[in-house]
Amino acid sequence: MVVTSAALAALDTRELAAVLAHERAHLTGRHSLRDVALNVAFRAMAIPRALGR
Predict the structure, then answer these.
(1) pLDDT 10s per residue in the chain (53 long)?
(2) 3-state secondary structure at position 2
(3) Locate the Peptidase M48 domain: which residues (predicted)?
């Protein structure tokens, strides 16, 4: 996870905490692994991503 200086400047403490909690939920939910698996499946079947979502 990367937080830019622009994000730090734009967000107050509560907002930053909410953004970080949201991103942590993606990590603990392993959403990136699901997305990789779907991309592999779509490429293997040659289905355009727009149709698969």
Answers:
(1) 889 999 999 999 999 999 999 988 888 877 777 778 887 887 888 766 665 55
(2) coil
(3) 1-39
Place of tokens 């400047």: 9
Nearest-CA neighbor of 19 among 31, 6, 28, 7? 7
Tokens of 23: 């991103």
> Rounded CA gap, 39 and 29, in Å?
17
* Closest to 21 measured CA to CA, from 9, 13, 43: 13
| CA atoms of 34 and 5, how far apart (whole Å) | 29
**Rounded CA separation 23/6 (Å):** 17
